[in-house]
Design a protein that fits this description.
- This protein is α+β, with helices and mostly antiparallel strands.
- The protein has a single domain (12-166), classed as Alpha-Beta Complex (Peptide Deformylase), CATH 3.90.45.
- Helices cover 24% and strands 28% of the residues.
- The protein has helices at residues 27-42, 125-138, 156-166, and strands spanning 47-49, 59-63, 69-79, 84-89, 97-104, 106-112, 118-124, 154-155.
- The strands form 2 sheets. Strands 1-2-3-6-7 form a 5-stranded antiparallel β-sheet, sandwiched between helices. The protein has a 3-stranded antiparallel β-sheet with strand order 4-5-8.
- The radius of gyration is 16 Å and the shape is globular.
- The structure holds nickel (II) ion (NI).
C-alpha cells in the first residue's frame, strides 16, 4: 500500500467528469482502493474520491461509523424526499477551509464493491453528506460550488476563533 499525493483545488483533474470503472474487480482497482484508504486515514479525512488522487475514475471511499473503510464503485445517488440540511464541510483538496453546504438530508445509493457485488441502501446524516460530497468529486464539483453564501467560507482556525468569541459554550464548527 502507498500514501498517494492529493490533488488540490486548481488541478484540472478535480473539475472534469470521471469515467466509469470498466472492471471493479480488477487488481489495479483493488490496489487503488487500498491506497486511497491509507491516504484518507493518513490525512485524517472521512471520505476520498479517486479524482482527488489524480485518477479520473468513478469510485470513492469513506469511513464508516465503526471506523471501517467502505468503497463504492460506479455509484449512483439520489435524494429521498425533499428535506435539505445545511452542514459544515471541508475537503482534503481544499486544506484548511470549511464552509456550510446544503445537501439532501436523506439519500438512496447504489454501486458495486471491489468484489463486484451490488451495494445499495439509504443513508442520512453524516454518511449521506459524505457520499454526496464524494459523488460531486466524480462530476467535477467542489463543495464551495454548492454553497449558497460564500461569505461563510473560511479558514477552520478563524471560524473556530470567531465561534468561540461569539458563544464560548458552543465550541467551533465541525
Ligand atoms: Ni472533498
Amino acid at each position: 500500500m502507498a500514501i498517494l499525493k492529493i490533488a488540490r483545488m486548481g488541478h484540472p483533474v478535480l473539475t472534469r467528469l470521471a469515467d466509469p470503472v470498466a472492471d471493479p474487480t480488477a487488481p489495479e482497482i483493488r490496489r487503488l482502493v487500498a491506497d486511497m484508504a491509507e491516504t484518507m486515514q493518513d490525512a485524517q479525512g472521512i471520505g476520498l474520491a479517486a479524482p482527488q488522487v489524480h485518477v479520473p475514475l468513478r469510485l470513492f471511499v469513506w469511513r464508516g461509523g465503526a471506523g471501517n473503510v467502505i468503497a463504492l464503485i460506479n455509484p449512483e445517488i439520489g435524494p429521498v424526499g425533499d428535506e435539505v440540511e445545511e452542514g459544515w464541510e471541508g475537503c482534503l483538496s481544499i486544506p484548511g477551509l470549511r464552509g456550510p453546504v446544503p445537501r439532501a438530508a436523506r439519500i438512496r445509493f447504489r454501486g458495486v464493491d471491489i468484489e463486484g457485488r451490488a451495494m445499495d441502501g439509504e443513508a442520512a446524516g453524516l454518511p449521506a453528506r459524505v457520499m454526496q460530497h464524494e459523488m460531486d468529486h466524480l462530476d467535477g464539483v467542489l463543495y464551495p460550488m454548492r454553497m449558497t453564501d460564500l461569505s461563510r467560507l473560511g479558514f477552520t482556525e478563524e471560524l473556530a476563533r470567531a465561534a468561540a468569541a461569539r458563544a464560548p459554550a458552543e465550541g467551533p464548527p465541525r
